[in-house]
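User: Continuing from earlier, I have the next pair ready.

Assistant: Great, send them over.

User: Here they are, in order.

Assistant: Folding the first of the pair now:
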Amino acid sequence: IGPEWAEQMAVPLWYIRAYLWFVLLSPLLLKALRALPWPTILSPIALSALLETGWLSVPSWRIDSALVDFGAFGACWLLGMAHQEGILQRLPRYLVPSIAPVIGCVGLWYMLTHGFKPDHDLDDIPFAQSLWSFATVLLLLHLSPSWSQWPRPLRRWDRLIALFNSRAVTIYLWHNLCIVVAQSLWDHLWNVPLLEQNVPWLLESSWPLLAVVWVLTVGCVLCFGWVEDVAAKRKPRLWPNGRRGGRGGAEGGRSGRHR
């Protein structure tokens, strides 16, 4: 499947490191949030700005990488905690829709004026990512409805949403390797003369490749997804789509709201 498979498999592991630090620091962050709500929420963005401008430098690239991730996404984590604590609900209703788009636009402006190229993304400019992510999450939490069940147009997707919520980490960690494997296998089909001569358009299309990626990802969910249940102290399930004794809609709805 090519020599780069190990590197590609390691790419998503930054998520585990960042998530672990967020979980370990959450008790301290919660105390700080209750004492000084907005200075605490905005502190990761300030950290990201200091790292971006060079006013704060760390000799170890491993520590620097962890701090960059915390600066980029820490404010989003704290916004979720603030939402649960009722801090965001105490803001005037007009405030978030007024300032969130402005903050997001500042993030996009910074991105466009600091070396963004067509083949890049926000990961390459952490400070811009911190502003854009903060603004987006703040606005979504402001608009987030409280439902006892899914609205009728969304109920058809209830089981799929419940599955994605229950296996989000598994899908994220394994999808990159699935893409590498699928791409490598698909490239070998060009060595089949019958396919190369008669259906080159099929081999050039990305849609069949996407289907293969999803098939492999589903296989990873079946093989490894149960670990998420064990980590959450739930009974391991093979395919947790929310259906339990004919009450799949209610279970999936609750799962969708809480993640």
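And the other member of the pair:
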Amino acid sequence: MKELENTSDHNASKRMMKAVRLHEYGGPEVLRYEDAPVPELKPGEVLVRVHAVGLNPPDWYLRDGYKSLPPEWRPQVPFPIILGTDISGIVEAVADEVEGFSIGDEVYSMVRFFSVGESSAYAEYVSVPASELALKPAGIDHIHAVGAPMSLLTAWQYLVEVGHDAPNPLQPNKHQPVPLEGKRVLINGAAGGVGHFSVQIAKLKGAHVIAVASGKNEALLRELGADEFIDYTQTPLEDVAQDLDLVLDALGGPTTGRFLRTLKRGGALFPVFPLGFEGTDEAKKLGITVSATQVRSNGAQLAELAHLLDSGTIRVVVDSTYALANARQAHERAEKGHIQGKIVLTVA
């Protein structure tokens, strides 16, 4: 193992770090900032000293025991567990056979998703499979870099390239992105994590982009490339959005069926959270494809996206930052909703 010279204890399993762990399911109050063992480096892995952690909906789904899922879908995890998937930091150690990463490299990753309870990002150190790691975009800091992995990969895998062959638990067929150039594309939940990246990707790929969010987000979304803006608090979007080629509903859930009537025959509806959708028969009658996928870790895609982040072609919007020790407050912020971009934890 190649480690930092000033690391006095070479047995990583005996070193301790600070982490945010769960010992039971519940609200934000169950998050405990405490000592935990530094993860032991396995073959094919890189140990990262974490500088920032990105929050994502799966964090609070896991924290509350996946109450939103049918009981048979709820994963069983052994407590205590460390939450989180998204990290940005600096390489501290590299397993012998790993190529392409060196001690001191600045890196970012979505760690081990989808493997529930194994990601362990809310911590000072994280072990990351090298295949899920990429060099951090040099032009942005750790706080902005960590806002990207899960949300940007989700948008990219929905809109551009799936990037994995994992079985799709949400539908029998593989998700297929659709060509975006010259198309009318509506993004619902456009100011959130997945939404604000989807606006930028659709615009980058040549679409006419209609962003749906509350009025306070209009200026930001137009800056990010939206051609039209609908304030859902003022206007029923079904009344004004018509003749669409694609709707990406970053919110999804039971209400996503209302978008079927806004789409052309031959159009597509991509709900990021497809559970609760009951419009399958109506979609068939209207000639509309409804498709979803489950985002998966992909270091090669993060490396590709790093160039777009580095150049400023795609921007990361940060809603708020909290110290790792204040993860509870960060989750309380998330529960209030109306997040503009991403919530980030900083690690001293």
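Worth noting for the second one:
The first strand starts at residue 2 and ends at 3. The two ends are 25 Å apart (CA to CA).
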